[in-house]
Amino acid sequence: MSSLPHPLYNVPSTMTIRLATPAPETYLQPLLIHHILYGAITAHADQQIVYRSHHRQTYSDLFKRVHRLANVLASLGVDEGHTVAFMDWDSHRYLEAYFAVPMMGAVLQTVNVRLPQEQLIWCLQDAKASVLVVHRDFLTLVNAIAPLLPDLRRCIVIADGEAFSGQNDVSEYETMLAASGTKFDFREFNENAIATTFHTTGTTGHPKPVSFTHRQLVLHTLALATTLAAQPDNQGLRRNDVYMPLTPMFHVHAWGVPFVATMLGIKQVFPGRYDPALMLKLRRDENVSFSHCVPTVLQMILAAARSEQASGLAPWTMLIGGSALTRALRQQAADFGIDTLAGYGMSETGPAIAIARNVEEHPDKLDAALRRAGWPLPLVLVDIVDPEMNSLPHDGRSQGELVLRAPWLTQSYGTDAAANKALWLGGWMHTQDLASIDLRGTLTLRDRMKDVIKSGGEWVSSVQLEELIVSHEGVAEAAVIAVEDEKWGERPLAYVVPKVEFSGNVTSDAIQQHLTAFVENGTISRIAVPHDIRVVESLPKTSVGKVDKKALQKNTLASARPDRHVVVNPSRTLR
């Protein structure tokens, strides 16, 4: 195994160091989440926090409600180290939980409300949540699964404006907050205490738990805030922006941006359950200027804007992650005045690792610069390695697995020893993403390692093929997977969703002709053009809005056509 021979990583195995000797009176302040909140309350007490059209409060109100929520939870027996699960849409209540629960020394479990019931039960069982705060939309589900949750003692229901009468051990959120005190004695403790936990789904087995400490979340917040503040105009987040998350707050802390927005005292707007028309209304009424989402959500917003014949949505900066930001989607957003740029991260990374920015002098290079993964955040070390962990050249051409080091990466998948060993093999976090790094340190994601297609001895990038297919004027979405082939080993198979206005006009032959033009100009090799292109009405999505290639693999395997001797590569479904 290589020691990764870049000078940056050559740390002596032994050294003589001098430790600071603090005076007896010195206060050594731990990095705790409540320090993010306290500064904002002092400087921005009157700043607004908005939930749909239902609720409007100030940061001063947030501070009081955080104390009230902590008092409520304490009255239910929640203590340091206990887990409190939260099932809600994006709201001011979720923001309160982001602070109140960890500030008590308890652990906030952000529950993915879109998981199948079996996985949802597993996640709640695994986290051993003792109290569950649940929106009324999920109450029927919770009542059905509660007998399977032996650690669950109490539920708090979020009625969200509707009448609710308490029953058995169930009480209503706002009623309980109103009856509680506005002062809770938050104490300081070890910064390495776990603050949050959630589960990330894989291709096989149960969802895996990841967790993050106070220290990790504070450092992530500082690094992300520094990066966004240093971005060029219309590519970052500033104090005068209005922020609306369009990534679920249950998903990796909504990419960590609510912590940044709160620390900076920025106006925040929460859309609740996603409704594209409402998102557009909130954007207009509240002057939203910064959001983040996966491409699917951006496509929903653009479709709603077309339906409303919206004249323009500028200024609105949209950070895109989860899937590749294609040239076509970026142009469609630009037509409505939305500035888009790509970011990179994973559930295991808390999540931000890199964000694109434009430093190109030539305008023709702007698009490519803002669609690549971009530059690592401060405190992030990156490298690309071969299967033996040998470091590969940072020349913009060499491709290898992206490996990471940063102070906020999850430390384990709980007690799963085999998964933990694979995740941190060689002391670097393994992303299973194929990437290149150029001389300036810019990251370009090439593909997921499990999605790269080896056909006739050549590597075919599913991401590149998808982007080229979507560049066809009639295509809304595309997904490419690998199938086994007796002659070539593997071949790409493409699923294509036409735009509504082009329904019936997008055919397999048309897409093949479209891709042939890229063969002729040298962008791709001829072997990369799929023989099998299937036009479908929609693509399956994961619980966070990304294209679910695992489901496509299963569906393709179930519908394999023996006469073509093409089946899904079974090994692809086992990773």
Commentary on this structure:
Strands 7-6-5-3-4-8-9 form a seven-stranded mixed sheet, with helices on both faces. A five-stranded mixed sheet has the order 12-13-14-15-16, with helices on both faces. It contains 16 helices and 26 strands. Among the domains are: 34-47 and 57-210, Rossmann fold (3-Layer(aba) Sandwich), CATH 3.40.50.12780; 380-449, Luciferase, Domain 3 (Luciferase, domain 3); 453-573, 2-Layer Sandwich (GMP Synthetase, Chain A, domain 3). Residues 1-8 and 561-575 have low confidence and may be disordered. It starts with 33 loop residues before the first helix and ends in a 7-residue tail after the last strand. With 575 residues, the chain is α/β, with parallel strands linked by helices.
CATH class of the domain at 34-47 and 57-210: Alpha Beta
SS-based class? alpha/beta
Unreliable segments (pLDDT under 50, ≥5 consecutive)? 1-8, 561-575
Number of strands: 26
Identify the CATH architecture of the domain at 34-47 and 57-210: 3-Layer(aba) Sandwich
Averaged pLDDT: 89
Q: Which word captures the global form?
A: globular
First CA to last CA: what distance?
Answer: 23 Å
Question: Main β-sheet, in a few words?
Answer: 7 strands, mixed
Beta percentage is 15-25%
Q: At the third CATH level, what is the topology name of the domain at 34-47 and 57-210? A: Rossmann fold
| Strands in their spatial order, largest beta sheet | 7-6-5-3-4-8-9
Query: Helical region count?
Result: 16
Helix content: 25-40%
The H-level CATH homologous superfamily of the domain at 34-47 and 57-210, spelled out, is ANL, N-terminal domain
